[in-house]
Structures are given as C-alpha cells and as structure tokens.
Amino acid sequence: MAQSRHVALPVLAGTMLLVSLWGATALARDSVVESYGGREMIVHAPDRLPAAGSRALVVVLHGGLGNADRIAGRQAESGLNMDAIADRNGFIVVYLNGTPVTRNLGGRFLGWNAGGGCCGMSAQNNVDDVAYITGAVDDLARRYGIDRSRVYGIGHSNGAMMTQRIVCETRLYAAAVAISGPLNLETSRCPSARGARILSIHGADDQNVPVAGGRGQKGLSRTAYSSEDRSRQVLTGSGAAYTLEIVTGADHRLDDIEAAIQKTEGVTIAEKAAAFFGLVKPRS
Known about the structure:
The protein has helices at residues 68-72, 83-89, 120-124, 129-144, 158-169, 228-237, 254-265, 269-277, and strands at 6-10, 16-20, 31-36, 39-44, 55-61, 92-96, 99-100, 110-111, 146-156, 175-179, 197-203, 241-247. The chain is an alpha/beta fold. It has a single domain (6-277), classed as Rossmann fold, CATH 3.40.50. Strand 11, helix 6 and strand 12 form a beta-alpha-beta unit. The protein is globular, with a radius of gyration of 17 Å. The chain starts with 5 loop residues before the first strand and ends in a 7-residue tail after the last helix.
C-alpha cells in the first residue's frame, strides 16, 4: 500500500501543521464531499438524526494554511474533527474551506478573511467569507432540514478569528467556540452578537497569536492581533456571553491545547465544544 508523506509547515496565523503530500484523504462513513460557491465542503450526516426541521449543525473552520480535508481526515487540527461526537449525539457537521492564502503554495493551503489584516491573500483580496459561510449554511439548512436556531461554529487560529467575525456580524451562530484566535475586527460594537454565547480557549504560552495581543514571535503572518481582553470587552459590551479559558502549559498548537484539556478535564475539544453547544445527550 502506498504510504502518505507529510511535511511540517509554519501556519500563517499560527502553529505547525502536518500537510499531506499524497492525494485526498479517505472520509469517514456518512461523510460526503459537496460544493457551494465554487468551494468544496465536507458534510458529515449520521444515520440517526432527529426529524427534519429540528436538526443541529456545527460549522468547522480550519486555521491558516489548513483545509477541510485535513481536519476530516485527521491529518491536522484533528481536535476539530466532530464526527464521532456527532454520531453519538445525532447532529450534522460541515467542514468548510477558505480561499488560497498565499501565491506560492497552491490551492490547498487556505485561509479566511477574518478582519484586521488577517490573513494573507484572503484578506488582501477582501474575500467576503461572511457571505460565503452564511450562504453555505443557508444551502445546508434547506437540504438537510436544519433548525436555524441550532447552528453553531468552531474554529482554530485564523478559523477562530473568522468564527468570532461571524458572531460579530451575523446572527448565524447560537454559540461558538474559538480556539487560539480573538475577534480581530477593528470595531467597538457587534450588535448582531446580542444573545450569542462564545467560549474562547487560548494557550497561555501562545507565541503566534499572543493572549495579550500584538505581533507574535512565531508564525508567518506579521499581523498585529487583538487581545483576548479586547475581544471580551467588545462582545460582552454588545450583549454576548463571552467565556475566556486560558490553558496553562499550552501554546498555539491545537494538539497541545487538547492534551492539556484532556489532562485537567478528561474530555476532548470536540466533547467540550458539543457540551458547550448543548448537543450532548444525557447518558441513559
């Protein structure tokens, strides 16, 4: 059997990412590749779901230089893979793709226009990712019987910043989990965030996107990031509930953050996120 080869690359807005150099990843059962707006997306819809019209959806956004395929295939940012917890609790997951973030690495190294200059070509080209994500969810809601009041978002790094932007500028998400990424918009108010719940998780030792804001010492992006305190002030001042968890002993890498959470709380990031969203069924 042919073996997959991987190489470590620095993530634009953050960490080190293992990138597959060997074709597409085999998807989990009940997962399909679909397309919306010229971008591929991976939809995981378990066999056992509630009635159409009452189904929940979790939107997963990769970090800079990532893509949906690598999360769904557990090649990178695997803590964002929600398939197993979705199977146990009966909700739908979609892994979305950004747009090429650099001219030199090709079309599989993607990012989001999360605001504040982050990140790369996605920001330089002023890609309207808010409209894209909103449109993709509208499309899925119609075709999969999703309850629009039960749409949730999770992302890491550049994907976390994009998740926070969605909360700020739309009423798409009832709740969101942002890991290693603040609200990076140059705004003091987010009227659309009123009533939303945000869980922001950040490694205390993050040198890529510092908790206190500013330019990180690691990573390719030279963006000056907002601080977590400013994110909390803006969003709580706009009527959202913002919970900030600083993870001791963890840096920017999702794997390190998940390992620390598992050690202290005994749960994975996917389990923690699903519980925060209210999607975990009581044990019988």
